[in-house]
Amino acid sequence: MVKGILCSSGALITRYNGRDPRLLRSIWGGLRADGLEFMIYPSWDGRLDEVEETVCRIKRDLMIGIPVVHADKRIGELLSLGSDEELQEARVRFIRGLRIAERLNSSLMVLHLWGGPASDRHIERNFSVLADYRAEAEKRGVLLTVENVVCAVGSPLSHLMELMDREPEARFTVDTKMAEFHGELDATVACERLWNGAAAHLHVNDYGGGIKDFSDLRVLHIGEGHVDFEPFFDRVRASGYSGYATVESTSVRPDGSIDFDRINRSLQRVREALKAK
After folding, report:
1. Buried b or exposed e, range 71-109, using 16+ CB within 10 angstroms
2. Residue among 152, 92, 100 nearest 121 (CA)
3. Cα Rg for the chain, rounded, in angstroms?
4. Judging by beta carbons within 10 Å of its beta carbon (0-12, 13-18, 19+), is residue 210 exposed, middle or buried?
């Protein structure tokens, strides 16, 4: 039985409402979630201290559980670009994310190990930093997970399997949309090694585009795309998975308001499917 069903703050705080973290205070009461996965935006550069204090205060005042932090996606892009300066900046952003995870008492961090236009074109370079990043996270009591994010050259599942060979203790976040984007959700569901303890976190989202359709990377709610969730849910239940599952599906209207009906339907469907506590 999973620990709980989380809502990503990235589904609630978007460009439509100015990515204002203060809005979490008013939004939280309308959610039927067991907690939040907190997304760190690169657009908060220069005011991340203020954002951190705001979220810590809201968490304390409303007693919100935030067991998962999603690291700045710019980290993966910088690693893929790969100059000495970019690699250093990636590490600085990573360490900063770990500090936020510590402040929020989060036990798990999601990392995009590659990303941006360069993506996985030089994947050995991206792989080379993982042992160091995992060690830094472990010092702070945070479990680092690599997400199966989209690739320009290879496929996310093949990269995850390579990492399992290289670092047997590595752990992963499995995202249904990312797998469906590459046409490998069935293979991801069937991967015994992944479900034998390596999958430590879940992102449960739908996808409506074609294979590797980079023009349509929207994060849809369950039922709005073509992901066949039942085999995925069956595998999660059968594997004895006991971590968290997060819904990231965008739930902000163009006027900045929250579509609580849509997000709560998705949260409830995942809760029922995985029989969360």
Report:
1. bbbbbbbbbbbeeeebbebbbebbebbbebbeebebbbb
2. 152
3. 17
4. exposed
CA distance 28 to 263: 12
CB 180 within 8 A of CB 149: no
CATH number of the domain enclosing 140? 3.20.20.150
Structurally, how many domains does the chain consist of?
1
Give the DSSP H/E element, type plus range, for residue 134.
Answer: helix 130-139
Six token digits for residue 82 = 């790969």
The distance from CA 107 to its chain's CA centroid, rounded to whole angstroms, is: 14
SS3 158: helix
Under a CB-based contact definition with an 8 Å cutoff, are residues 117 and 155 in contact?
A: no
Render pLDDT for 95-117 as a digit per residue (tens, 0 to 9): 999 999 999 999 999 999 999 99
Q: Where in the sequence is the domain holding 81, given as residue range(s)? A: 4-274
Structure-token pair, residue 215? 């023009």
Which tokens in the block code for residue 93? 């952003």
Between CA 200 and CA 134 the distance in angstroms is 14
pTM greater than 0.90: yes
DSSP tag of 213: -
Quick one: tokens of 224? 């709005």
N residues, the chain: 277
